[in-house]
Amino acid sequence: MLLTTSMNLVGADEYRALDRIQTTNLRTAAKIGSVDGHDRYLIPAVIYQESKAGLDKKHQTFIGIGQVGFAAVREVLQEYPEVSSSCGGINHKSPKNVIRRAVQENDRCGITVASKYMVVIKEKYGISGEEHQVVAYQRGPIAGKKVKSSQYSKSVMRHKRNLKNLFKE
């Protein structure tokens, strides 16, 4: 099943037809993000920006559907051990290749890590404001503290607005 919508509703050809996997990933991201206290459309917008909701997640440095750095993945696993249940039992002490494979191959795990990383940015590093948190997601929380907005964050915010039109409430 394809999720389709009129281009004039969302203002971009890129959303015209999402495949079943992308649609499932966006809906899963909305649920996981909401449970973690995010706006319902924030995590779907991040994963769409990062990997087109799972369509393009191959990268040498960053991992999975949320394209999160390894240090951030390990930090999430240490701060939130319950993430292990969504990620095949891995934990922050698991070997690097095992963690990388779990996050890369399991989209639910990658979405959970991305969502929890946004929580870490907010709660551990004290970065408030959704767009500022998105900057920190991309640049890292230390570098992200210095910049409140960027082209990347503006793009994620645009995806967030556009993706609202795709979800049937």
Walk me through the structure:
By secondary structure, this protein is mainly alpha-helical. It has one domain (3-164): Lysozyme (Orthogonal Bundle), CATH 1.10.530. Helices cover 56% and strands 5% of the residues. It contains nine helices and four strands; from the N terminus they run βαβααββαααααα. A hairpin with a 4-residue loop joins β3 and β4. The two termini are 18 Å apart. Mean pLDDT is 89; it is low at 1-11.
Would you kindly provide a brief summary of this structure?
The chain has one domain (3-164): Lysozyme (Orthogonal Bundle), CATH 1.10.530. 56% of the residues lie in helices and 5% in strands.
Structure keywords:
169 residues; mainly alpha; Lysozyme; two-stranded antiparallel sheet; 4 strands; 56% helix; globular; disordered N terminus
